[in-house]
Amino acid sequence: MSTPASTPSTPMLPYTQDFQWCRTSTTELSSGDQEQSQKYSDIENEIIENGYNGKKTEVEIDGGYVIDLHRKLQYKKDDPSQQHRIERFQLSRDRRNVHLRTERFGSPVTLGAPTSSSQQSNNMKDIAYVMKHGSLPSVYFFQAVYHKDKKVADIVEEAAQGIVKEGKAQEKLHEAQWLSQQLLAVKHFGDNVPAKFTENPCKITETCIYLFTKNSFWYELFNRTLREATAITPERIETVGPFALLLHTHLFKDHPRDTETVYRGLGLNDEQRKEFMKTKIVFTAFTSTSRNRTAAEMFGNTLLIMNLKDDHMSKRDQCGANISHLSHFPDEEEFLIWPGRIFHFTGYEYDDRNSKHVIYLSWSNSDDLFNLQSDYV
Fold it and tell me: Residue 258's pLDDT band (boundaries 50, 70, 90)?
C-alpha cells in the first residue's frame, strides 16, 4: 500500500543530494542510461528517496502515480498497466552545476509599474500596493500580523496551510504536503516568539530559503504571484503572504557585505530592453541572480550587470543576500534580491564578441521600498 511522505521529526537542513531517481518511457533502463532517462523533480526525488531509505514498498507522487520501490516501477494508480521502469543513480561527488537552471535564472523578469485609477477602485489598496512596489511581505505583515500579537509559530502554521491549499488547487498535493512538513518540523522554534518584520528565528527562515531553492510548483506559483498583476488576489495574499514574510525576514538579516556585483541573463526584444533602461526600475518578485558572470551569460541575448554597492547605505541597508550556502544547488552562487528593490540605469553597451546587449544597473537605498511604505501604511 502506497503511503505519503512522513512528517520529519527534525528540521531538514541543506545537504548534498547523493542519489537521483529517474524513469524511462519504456520498461527497460540499463545502468548507464541516466542521461537518456527523465529525472524526477527535486521534491519527487526527495519523496522517493525518503521512502527507499524508510524501507517502504510504495510511495505516491502527484499525477496519480505510484512508485513501486520493490519492483522499481512507476505505474498509474487507476491503470496499473501504464508502467515505467525506474532506477536510482549515484551522483558524482566531484560534480558542479556549470549551467544555471533556466526556469530560475533565465525566466522573464517583470518590473513594477504605477497602478491606474481603475485598478485602485477594482482591487483592495493592499493589492494595488503589491502591484506597484512588489512588497507582498509588507502587505501581509500589516494586514495579518501588525498589532495582532501573533507568534512566529502561527505564521509558520499559516505558511504550511497556504502551501497545502495551493497544492490542492494545482493538483500538486503530495509535493505541497512534503514542503509543508519541512516547515512544520521547525515550527517549534517559533513558539512564544513574537512575529517581527525583520527578525525571526534562523532555523525557520533558513528552512524557507532552502525550500525556495528547490524546483517545485510552489516556487513557480510564488514568483508568478508577484510577477503577474492578475495573480495577486486577497486569497493569494493569505496563502502566499506568510511564506513571503518568512523568506523576506532572512534576507533582511545582517549578512556579510562581500557581494558587490551580480548578474542575470535575459532574452529581450528591443521594446522589453528599453524597460530596463529607464531612470528607475523596480523588481517586483524575489529575483534570482548569480555571482558567476560566465554562468549568467549562458541565458538570452541581454546581460544585466547589477552593482549592489551604495556608498551612502548604513550597516543594515541591503537589497538581498547570498543564499548559496543554504541552497539545494550551492554551485549556482545564487544571490537573491527581495521584492521592491529599486535600481537605477547607469549604462549600456553591445558586446560584439559575445553578441550580447549589456545593461548596467545600480542599486540605491535612498529611494528604496522601505522609504516608500508611507504609500501603504
Answer: confident
